[in-house]
Amino acid sequence: MAAQPMTRKLFPCFCLTLLLAFPCLHASAEEVTSSQKNAQPDWVTFNPSPHHSSRKGEDVSAIIMHFTAGGSQAATVGWFRNPKAKVSAHYVVGRDGTVTQMVPLDQAAWHAGKSKIGDKTGVNSYSVGIEICNWGPLRQVDGQFVNYTGRKYDGPTPVQSEDGHYWEPYTDAQYATLLKLCEYLIDEYDITHITGHSDIAIPQGRKNDPGEAFQWEKFQVGLKDRNVKHIGPLTDAE
Q: Which reaction is recorded as catalysed by this protein (predicted)?
């Protein structure tokens, strides 16, 4: 019997070898586009959360600041990765200023809940959510500060707001990173609002983050030349 040509048998094996060695060869155009759109800066670590959804065609126009109500970046990242959490943010900023991205920017993270800016509801669909590691409000018990869990607070000296309440201060490293992150997002999108969760939550008063210790003036000064319509707490007119 004459020997059979080897070409047809070798070709599938050769193709399989190429695909295994270079998986990018079979990536779809949609995957490539998504990858390019969500390429994070080299100072950002990506650790994906399963909690996100479509932006439903909305353009990103807002950045929303939150506090985590906890001190550990690892704990927040772990919770956002937990299938039971049903909550997430695009970024988590640690006390040392390190950044973890958890949701691609072309997807809506689940950070805002029932919310609006002006008359436009559904803030998740058109915003980037940033969680900043911070305990938020503190209270005094038996001469010492405790966080909302009742555990002793051992961080930097609390900030007292005009209404007499105490808050954990944010770190210089966090402010530096947040300004850098805002600059990056402003370059990527037409950002019109940078504000806090407390200002967009429905009903008003449902949330109190990023809290009274958050220094909005750092952003109003640092981003003054970036043509952002509004930076800071919102009023009813806004």
A: Hydrolyzes the link between N-acetylmuramoyl residues and L-amino acid residues in certain cell-wall glycopeptides
Q: What is the CB-side half-sphere exposure of residue 233 using CA atoms within 13 A?
A: 14
CA–centroid distance for 77 within its chain: 11
The answer to whether the CB of 196 falls within 8 A of the CB of 204 is no
Q: Can you give the pLDDT at residue 238? A: 63
All domains of the chain, ordered by start, with CATH? 7-37 (no CATH), 40-134+170-231 (3.40.80.10)
Report the alpha-carbon distance of residue 189 to residue 194 in Å, rounded: 12
pTM: 0.84
Q: Does the N-terminal peptide bond of residue 210 adopt cis geometry, omega within 30 degrees of 0?
A: yes
3-state SS, residue 35 = helix
Lowest average pLDDT, out of 32-46, 118-132, 174-188, goes to 32-46
